[in-house]
Amino acid sequence: MTETCHDAFQRGLDDRKAYDLSSGARRLGESLDAPQRASETITNIAAYRKFKRRGGGRPLGCCTSNDAALWLKRRPQNIAYDLAYNVVPAIKALARDGVPPSVVNGCLARATRVVPVILDDCEEARIALRRGIKHEYKLMKSGGSTVQPLVNAERALISATLTAVKPWI
């Protein structure tokens, strides 16, 4: 049975229990890199599919042209896991960076509202991508994507949190 996005999120929470974060700000900064790289990769996959260059194995960022379909199909679960393993714990750890508890609590409240929506969207995308990658490639050729909005939502949560805590880090 394939892991759902909610399962991936729970696995991320469970895995994080073994490794406590000492700095939330540093981890959030590092976590912002992942959606940026993913977004670049999606753009590269779309360009590759649109112009269908010859030869396999071309680097596209986080994957190659040979494994782009697999990378796209795994992205929803990877985002769910990353939210649980890196983003939410990093927000909680911001207090260790000297961020006032009221600000940390506000950031956690935002995450508490946004994360379930992102997880539901990830799950919808996972189900759609499981049916086949052809629809995603067709969307990409016309400038869309099922995966890109998920990446954007993760990036928006991290960016909003970093903006809120900027005076203290």
Structural topology:
Layout: H1 5-16, H2 24-51, H3 68-93, H4 101-130, H5 134-141, H6 148-165
Helix pairs in contact: 1-3, 2-3, 2-6, 3-4, 3-6, 4-6
Question: If you had to describe this structure to a student in words, what would you say it looks like?
Answer:
By secondary structure, the protein is an all-alpha fold. The chain has helices at residues 5-16, 24-51, 68-93, 101-130, 134-141, 148-165. It has one domain.
Keyphrases for this structure?
169 residues; 0% strand; 6 helices; single chain
Question: What's the pLDDT, averaged over the residues?
Answer: 92
Distance between the termini: 43 Å
Total count of domains = 1
Number of DSSP-assigned strands:
0
**Shape verdict:** elongated
Beta-strand content bin: under 5%
Entry summary:
The chain is an all-alpha fold. The protein is 72% helix and 0% strand. The longest helix is centred in the C-terminal third of the chain and has 30 residues, at 101-130.
